[in-house]
Write a structure and sequence with these properties.
By secondary structure, the protein is an alpha+beta fold. Helix content is 23%, strand content 36%. The relative contact order is 0.19.
Length: 202
């Protein structure tokens, strides 16, 4: 006995076809936007560090050749988020000349019973000053691991570009604030954290 022929599939209703096509397009657009958002994060960070946009501090390879006899007070603000840490500057502010290299020291204490790895985000206020604030050395350039109940000192070597005095948007400023916030480094592996804590810190 020969198998009965399969029934022909009824043509898809035009309205259902349009709805299906719209759903497919919307899903594709949504996935594309999510991918673009993730790709934009490192690009935006690189842009901010290159331009000082939004108060982001730029990294420098060397100190400037000249120092301008124009004083500026730099205040330090410290914060922690979701960490059992104490984080304070040894000095709440420093007075400096434009182009002068200064060192600020920060102290971190881990109150937990295990090592913790964290990273610091930073910015300068007012935002316009970020374009001229330069760091030669900073703990914010890499993850920092602090052992259980350990206290460490973290230095920052910095200067303010003398061009700060020529910019119409910054030349009247007498005070700027360098702000740090430590967050847990969520991508740190437990074994890496423990190994890093065993290494002596400079």
């Amino acid at each position: 006995m020969s198998p009965s022929p399969s029934p022909e599939r009824a043509p898809l209703d035009p309205q259902l076809r349009r709805n299906r096509n719209v759903a497919i397009v919307c899903a594709a657009v949504f996935l594309g936007m999510v991918g673009a958002a993730f790709a934009a994060v490192p690009a935006y960070r690189a842009f901010c560090q290159a331009t000082g946009y939004g108060g982001t501090v730029r990294r420098a390879e060397s100190a400037p050749d000249k120092i301008i006899d124009r004083q500026l007070r730099v205040s330090f603000d410290t914060n922690v988020r979701n960490l059992p840490w104490s984080f304070i500057p040894e000095q709440r502010s420093q007075t400096m000349k434009l182009g002068e290299t200064k060192i600020a020291v920060f102290k971190v204490t881990n109150h937990a019973d295990h090592p913790i790895t964290a990273r610091a985000l930073f910015n300068v206020a007012p935002d316009q000053a970020g374009a001229y604030f330069r760091k030669l050395q900073c703990f914010c350039f890499s993850d920092q691991t602090v052992g259980a109940h350990q206290t460490v000192e973290m230095p920052v070597l910095y200067f303010v570009d003398p061009k700060f005095a020529d910019d119409i948007n910054t030349r009247t400023f007498t005070d700027v604030t360098l702000s740090y916030t430590f967050f847990p480094a969520v991508d740190a592996k437990p074994q890496d954290t423990a190994a890093a804590a065993a290494k002596p810190k400079a």
